[in-house]
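Explain my protein.
***
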Amino acid sequence: MRLMNKGLKQIVIGLVVAGAALALAACSSDSGAPVVPETTSVSPVATATTVPTLSSSTPTLIIPEATTLPIAEPTVTPSLATVFSDFGFTLKLDRGADVQTTGWTESAASLTQGLASFAYGGVNTSLVWGPSENRVPLEFLASTYNVLRAAQPNITFESISDGNITVSEQSGSFGGFKAVDASSTTVGGGLIGTWNCGNGTAFRMTVTSVDATVAQLRFDRLLKNFSCPK
């Protein structure tokens, strides 16, 4: 009885072992390969990028200093404030000119003859008028030189220029000269202009100065502002 039990026990143990073996074989056939743990893919973590921030302060505008440009001073032309027209003709003069008159062939100036003189702006000016006696301006110019030489015998008057001029729409002549003393030193100079107006009156204007440029400027200005009798 005891032998039977022992053999039965061995049979049962063998069956259990065989069953376990079968179970392990079944598990191995289902998988076919060893089970490898699944790898989890981890996405790379983006590195934070530092973005420069705009300054919240208000930008400072640098405005260049304004450059002050020099302003040219306007050239002031003296106003013609004096009009000399006592003897038919008209002569516009700068302010401050004091005109003195006297007779040329008579004791006092008149519509037909006279002498007007004034000093202004560094020049001495004389204006003579009288009957033309059919003389052309060039003849009147030559006689004027003779008058100057007779009035100042110790001074030599040398002609340095001559030509034609137009005064109040009338043709005329002019001559430039320099004055030299006995030591051959130039002591001055001037210009003479002669013309005839339509009413038969001849005019001679003489401008003298120690400065030739000033004499020329005054001479041109005076002739420009002369008008014959109407």
About this structure: Strands lie at 82-84, 90-93, 100-102, 114-120, 123-131, 156-167, 170-180, 186-196, 201-209, 226-227.
